[in-house]
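pipeline stage [seq->struct] | target=Octanoyltransferase | organism=Pseudonocardia yuanmonensis | residues=253
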Amino acid sequence: MASQGTSCRRSPNPVRVDLLGTIDYLTAWDVQRANAEARRAGTGPDVLMLLEHPSVYTAGKRTRPEDRPTDGTPVIDVDRGGRITWHGPGQLVGYPIVSLGEPLDVVDYVRRLEEALIAVCHGLGVSTAGRVEGRSGVWLPADDLRPERKIAAIGVRVQGGVTLHGFALNCDPDLGEFGRIVPCGITDAGVTSLSAELGREIPTDEVLASVTEAVLAALEGTLPVREHVVPRRETAVAAGVAGLDLQLHPSLH
């Protein structure tokens, strides 16, 4: 699995990076859509939005009723692929609003985002970060005490050749917020963070520069997509068969 060393973007012009701080989810969604509309119309550039959200649950198109909170916690339904997830303080969220080149390859785009976040994790010392077959995002392998666990989530939409939504890297969030839902609809795995894995606080500011650099490099192809297979225990695989979600959302085909 290696990218061709070429850009996945239609435009040769630089990506504009917008550092938005903490911003309400619905406000950021409006900004996303405005950036995407400008990009489709040719009046705006490719943009990488980097930010944090106040605590919020969002549900993609494939979210099932049993994935949702059972305590009445509000959920915002959105038009991305995937299921339900949480966003909040301590989590770095990235929304690349990019016009993809032809032929359109959304799976390749997702793999590039994964590659960028894997590179960031490896650079910080989380050397086991990689991919689990059939599941998007960045994962760590099970060990004697913990199941497979996701450290970064990805959910995207492509409309008119322009990407929307993106990724969320767990830096130092309150992982208890994931306890109200079935994160990404996966019942046989856990959620973790850079802070939990490294045993020290990793604020979002600490990874902002490295995430920016890695995402831009992955989009351009200077950071090639490689194999980073998370080894799976036979017992874990057997126990989790019923919970596996092996089909990509149609937007990723």
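stage status: PASS
auto-comment: The longest strand covers residues 149-159. The helical segments are 25-41, 106-124, 194-198, 204-220, 234-240.
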